[in-house]
């Protein structure tokens, strides 16, 4: 049975590897806000468990075994977020911290039942794909809203950050997953956009458009 600390390291590695092919000990240290010696010690332990490939002064690489372990933690987190929204009435902006705690429950049958009750969802409330029982994950073919052109019509399918501040920003502008968006104007200078959805016009900065994934 993996410890809470090990699971936090695995999940951090999982997210960092998805963002960059190579992950350094320094990257992991910053992500977890843990000092380098402690991170080095844990990564050596992970190497002994065959979860990572690691040599001093070289990037960390997750093995297939490590990816599966990490994916199963992500599965628990995302299923929990979906359950909190769909069955308990929480807003999508309020579920991350609760899921951070519940993801460390060591009971496969508990999360399998949660999955069944939810009718086996493919994505969480933020549009992130949910790994299956074997840790397999299908990444949807999405692009950033910032990559769209004027007159494009797209559907909001996911967000790249689930911070409470950002999700409240979207809530105030009546923007949620599944919303159809039309790009009215794109500024050459700063790549900001004027968009139309739900019978309203909004101006979004490039920072916001980079965080909205559409299909």
Automatic annotation (TrEMBL):
| Compartment(s) | Cytoplasm
Record Pfam families: Fe_dep_repr_C, Fe_dep_repress, FeoA
Q: Does the keyword Membrane apply?
A: no
State the UniProt keywords alphabetically.
Activator, Cytoplasm, DNA-binding, Manganese, Repressor, Transcription, Transcription regulation
Is Cell membrane included in the keywords of this UniProt record? no
State the SUPFAM superfamilies in the record.
Iron-dependent repressor protein, dimerization domain, Winged helix' DNA-binding domain
- Top-level taxon of origin: Bacteria
Q: Name one GO cellular component term.
A: cytoplasm
Residue ranges of the HTH dtxR-type domain? 1-63
Q: How does it assemble?
A: Homodimer.
**Known PANTHER family for this protein?**
IRON (METAL) DEPENDENT REPRESSOR, DTXR FAMILY (PTHR33238), TRANSCRIPTIONAL REGULATOR MNTR (PTHR33238:SF11)
Summary of the function given for this chain in its UniProt record: In the presence of manganese, represses expression of mntH and mntS. Up-regulates expression of mntP.
Per the record, the similarity remark reads: Belongs to the DtxR/MntR family.
Protein name per the record: Transcriptional regulator MntR
Which organism's genome codes for this protein?
Answer: Epilithonimonas mollis
